[in-house]
Amino acid sequence: MKKKKENSNASGLKIIPLGGLEQIGMNITAFQYEDSIIVVDCGLSFPADDMLGIDLVIPDVTYLKDNIDKVKGFVITHGHEDHIGALPYVLRDINVPIYATRLTMGIIENKLTEHNLMKKTKRKVVKFGQSINLGDFRVEFIKTNHSIVDAAALAIYSPAGIVVHTGDFKVDYTPVYGDAIDLQRFAEIGKKGVLALMCDSTNAERPGFTPSEKTVGKTFDTLFEEHKNTRIFVATFASNVDRVQQIINTAYKFGRKVAVEGRSMVNILDTAIKLECINIPENTLVDLDQMKNYPDEQQVIITTGSQGESMAALSRMANNMHRKITIGAGDTVIFSSNPIPGNEKSVTKIINELLRKGADVIFQDAHVSGHACQEEIKLIYTLIHPKYAVPVHGEYKHLKAQAKIAESLGISKDNIFILSSGDVLEVSEEQAKVAGRVPVGAILVDGLGVGDVGNVVLRDRQHLAEDGIMIVVMSLDRASGELVAGPDIVSRGFVYVKESDELIEEARRTVDDALQACLDKGITDWGKLKTTTKDVLGDYVWKKTKRRPMILPIIMEV
Amino acid sequence: MKKKKENSNASGLKIIPLGGLEQIGMNITAFQYEDSIIVVDCGLSFPADDMLGIDLVIPDVTYLKDNIDKVKGFVITHGHEDHIGALPYVLRDINVPIYATRLTMGIIENKLTEHNLMKKTKRKVVKFGQSINLGDFRVEFIKTNHSIVDAAALAIYSPAGIVVHTGDFKVDYTPVYGDAIDLQRFAEIGKKGVLALMCDSTNAERPGFTPSEKTVGKTFDTLFEEHKNTRIFVATFASNVDRVQQIINTAYKFGRKVAVEGRSMVNILDTAIKLECINIPENTLVDLDQMKNYPDEQQVIITTGSQGESMAALSRMANNMHRKITIGAGDTVIFSSNPIPGNEKSVTKIINELLRKGADVIFQDAHVSGHACQEEIKLIYTLIHPKYAVPVHGEYKHLKAQAKIAESLGISKDNIFILSSGDVLEVSEEQAKVAGRVPVGAILVDGLGVGDVGNVVLRDRQHLAEDGIMIVVMSLDRASGELVAGPDIVSRGFVYVKESDELIEEARRTVDDALQACLDKGITDWGKLKTTTKDVLGDYVWKKTKRRPMILPIIMEV
């Protein structure tokens, strides 16, 4: 206790979110006490609508690079992409050990294998209740419930005090696999005195309690009973092993065989089987190829694609583009998922497609959330009884909603911090304040390129997407400075040339006249010729079409 | 009755949807009896996500053009874009009279004025209960309720029988303006015997009854009471005149002045005032410029932008980009709207932005739908008691949901028709069947161009958006066929050149080598040189970056 007091006066604990607060996903938070840094999670996020052509987005970890000697390790809460997805990219620069529970590590190892990083990366599987020492920190893994098995909350012990980070969680008193969230341990730690609680805000706008995952199992029983004579497809999230377990349980009850389709689904199921996180009755799981040996009413196909992703298995099976299976009249398709915000339209599209094919589609009531609603959040706050509240995981409106909950529980407004990525929150018994900023940002990954697509490229893509491009090529004679070929205009994404020969030809003449006028006046400066081309052609095209294609003059010297 | 029998044997009535069934919006349906055609509605739809750069989408009316001598007029149900928006475009080819109720016509006339079509277009305002004769048809306008004033259902009397088309509707027993839906007239017509009912399916998946628009007024009273000391902004749909009326009523009750912001909002309000569809207490409506003369607690600003549109007034006021007003701490913003499917993310974005600015944001409970839920649909079916059911207005899943309702009310499956755009449904007392197809399609409008952006251009835009473009220019000597300049590579939207000089230079050398090899072999055919360039550069770039930019070789001859 004495040491704690002294140290907190000296420097205190720094909580530094490096991502996750300006967007859904990309969760990564550094905790620093003097010369020790630990990093909780290392997630990716998916590109926003205006990030054209981008595959995924990872956090800028410049701060960790600059302090690489202090970084002790990654401590991972659970195996979802928004918590582990950036690891293969970040590990290239920040090669420190990874600590995670069993299934979480299994999924991480799939990624490391894919990126050829297994040998280079130290890993340690941690059990619930177990602690690891990392420099000045001790981190304890606490059992929680979530939409993936083996999710953990973290109690982070530092000389300045304890921080509890819930990760993504819900309270499930009757989980499908393993134990309920370890509320007793939350209470014990709360009794010790907790400096700060960083709690999942995803469902903080929703009143009440999220139902148990087990309720979905009952729904499956009912739905299978109602559709006894049809082939059944269930679309769900690949990582929701408990959901898959329940589908298999119900299938077994009704004497059906189960096949699993979609690469990510197969991968995670393999890992779950290997790690014994799922319990499959003998002779229930069959290969998709063998399904043809069974009548429709003995088949269940669990598939990816519940978000309407056009390349996922469900979409391909609905559009006759799957090499083995086509969904059609008489089939039943259960969506065991909700659309993630932004995916509503693509989910509706595939539902319409399936209905049009004659399938029976069930897209309500076969899903529960994996995140805590308001009453669960209140429960955790009450058990932990923190001095400071730092809502995490969610958009600003969700963080704000949790802040309101914290306030309603008696935490003073001054002790609630809605942080931005890059904020340095210094916390001690005496006070907490945002005491600085570190560099943060989103790095775009496109194909093999990490960070080589910046704002200029994105703006160009947006411009190209909007109205296409007009390229004006011309050749100037090196000696005389005269135009010896061109200007010629080539367009793409503007108008289809055959439909608009006249427009293009008149545009060409307009540019030609303007260029000749320049050259006649003795203007041969390439910059001026290009500017003239852009201005004249831009004006002409806007007047004629009210469009602004990108205009790209190219001068060759011969 | 005799005539009817004879005629229905001869040819029957044709119902031909020319749009509106494959997408939300673009509602337009032709009704043909021998040499008479009438067209119900003429709407636009908004571009799908993959229609890059497209402003709006209008129906292909080739069938009407081919039968222009038979077309008697447009009969419009109400003044929403998805029912009137294509008129200014379609009228250029199909210049026939327009029939609509008062406010509907007022909004149409705004459009015609904008497109300079007022003088050329015959128009007739029709009252509820009134009928118009159009060739072999008589069309009666029946009062309904919807989220816009003056919405009408149509009873279409033909020698083959009666078709009732509800338009978009709900049942509101206590409407804000004017009368409740004329259920008595629906019943009377039902008694006569109705051949087919074409009923709004938008909310056919929702059980129960849509609440009265008046309930929103009560919500406003409560919210204004709770936020007595702040400036209040209300964002809603420009066309919902009743909603604006209720906001004004509540503002007046609380001694507040009202200003209206956003071009479409101002336009429709002006029209509604002119046509006396709205009742504004004296000295309540003030100019936005004058608002500064009143304290915050006496201000209400009604604004567009409830869908998070980045250029609308709300967004500009939230982002300090509005020239007169900035929303900030202490302001209250009420969203009196629900996100239209596909807009969820942009709505959430602006909510987060407003919260971050310190505004209090209310985005639930201050809206009701304008469409009938299941019990209302059942009511209309029961009053009309049609022989055939033709669900309209909605995506496939909504049409299917209404079909299920119709079945549950005893209409045989064989008498329910879920049509596709272009289907020709022949209906008579004896039978109904899809007896043919007419050409239909979606015509893309981009700037001034109508239909000049086709699939090739869209595919190019998608390609450009995904990975950008690499342009390879070179000059060949006319006489010798030798390369006298280039190949040079210019890229846009691929990688920012300064970050990737080496990559581009190596790519250039690779192309150069390949071209020289061709030329050395005596290959000077431009097609072959271009193909070689595309292949070699494409392979190189894919290998190095896993991207596939558009590659455009341009050869100049000098």
UniProtKB/TrEMBL annotation, chains A, B:
UniProt key word rRNA processing: yes
Cofactor comment text: Binds 1 Ca(2+) cation per subunit. Seen in 1 crystal structure, it is not clear if it is physiologically important.
Binding site for Ca(2+): G53, D55, D446
Annotated function: An RNase that has 5'-3' exonuclease and possibly endonuclease activity. Involved in maturation of rRNA and in some organisms also mRNA maturation and/or decay.
Residue span, Metallo-beta-lactamase domain: 25-220
The protein, known as: Ribonuclease J
Annotated binding of Zn(2+) 2, by residue: H78
EC number: 3.1.-.-
Keywords, ordered alphabetically: Calcium, Cytoplasm, Endonuclease, Exonuclease, Hydrolase, Metal-binding, Nuclease, RNA-binding, rRNA processing, Zinc
Source organism of this protein record: Waltera intestinalis
PANTHER family noted in UniProt: RIBONUCLEASE J
Gene Ontology cellular component list: cytoplasm
Entry binding sites for substrate: A238, S239, N240, H367, V368, S369, G370, H371
Cofactor(s) it depends on: Ca(2+); Zn(2+)
GO molecular-function term, one example from the UniProt record: zinc ion binding
UniProt record similarity statement: Belongs to the metallo-beta-lactamase superfamily. RNA-metabolizing metallo-beta-lactamase-like family. Bacterial RNase J subfamily.
Subcellular location: Cytoplasm
